[in-house]
Amino acid sequence: MADAPTGISRALREAPPDRVVEAADLAIRAALGASGTAVYIADYRISGLWPVLDSRQDGAAGPGVQGTVRRCFSSQQPVRESGEDGRCRIHLPLTVWGERLGVLMVELTGEPTETVVRAAVDMAGELAMSLRAADRETDRYRRVRRRERLSMAAELQWELLPGRSVSHDSFHLAGQLEPAYTVGGDHFDWSLDEGRLTVTVLNGDGIGLAAALLTAVTVNAMRNARRSGGGLVEQAELASDTVYYQHRGDRHVATLLLELDCASGRVRAVDAGSPHLVRVRGGAVSRVALEQQLPLGMFGETRYDLQEFDLDPGDRLFVVSDGVWAADPSGRETYGERAMARAMRATRLQPPTEAVGTVMRELQSFHADADLRDDAVVVCLDWRGSAGRDQG
Q1: pTM score above 0.85
Q2: Burial (CB count within 10 angstroms: exposed 0-12, middle 13-18, buried 19+), residue 131
Q3: All domains of the chain in start order, with CATH
């Protein structure tokens, strides 16, 4: 039993990328004496979880697997389920650095010992890491995730994302794009380097593939500057010049760039005609006042200034695009006027991975469940405090 995680690691390394689920099944059965396993992957909307081994590949609509599997995915905790036949199913989250991929189910012939449960948890971690790596080498798991065909713009946007969530001792970050299968210009990006978290949220000009291409150029220009050692100002200025010299001011990208010092909670920001920044502190929801500067790409050689503010341990930041803030489907007040703040307050006890979904669902309800008229991005960042100390 002590070598069980090592055994599954070897099996996963030796398996082809499109067969890691089958390799994990054989290794887990052998190591734990399991009678069966199943792997479920979350779809793009995170509206359901879908089995890999017997998933229909026709994009069939439906709610996906719910119940115990969904409870495990949402809580990010192992969940046991005992049957009348004496069998026990352990549901385990498949998560890598805070990125929620899905759920592993292990079926045992009897009640497991704590040693078995710990081994199963370790195996789920090994499988999650392998699934994330294999995702770049095969389309199999992406086909499970999509419940309808992606537009070309959405295909580009999802490929550009770093992930949908990430965790650290001092913060937890998550984001969501909607409409998931047709999103165009809205986007988010992040990178964690030596105790600094850089987050960018973009509201690209235009619609469809043209907007997605504009956003892709902007994101990669900022990444180029960041990976060359440039700070927020250099990232904004290189991206702005790149867009300007491509489009001569006819296209632009409203962008918010943030850099969080994970130890101190100090935030540096460049507000380039940005998406909206909102802080939730306790039960209070308020805009973070930043001086708006020109969107990226409006003029050549535009220069940007840094602004700074501090977070208190337990603070939550939301960044939302105009498709969220300014939504007014029936000509009444916009979503950002009052309804959005109510939705954000309702997320107080939820982690960011659940909070972004709550705000998006409330936005959908605000639209009376009609399709969103504009792209929408919601990013949620919790700063826990230095070394993630308990906030009570």
Answers
A1: yes
A2: buried
A3: 4-144 (3.30.450.40), 150-388 (3.60.40.10)
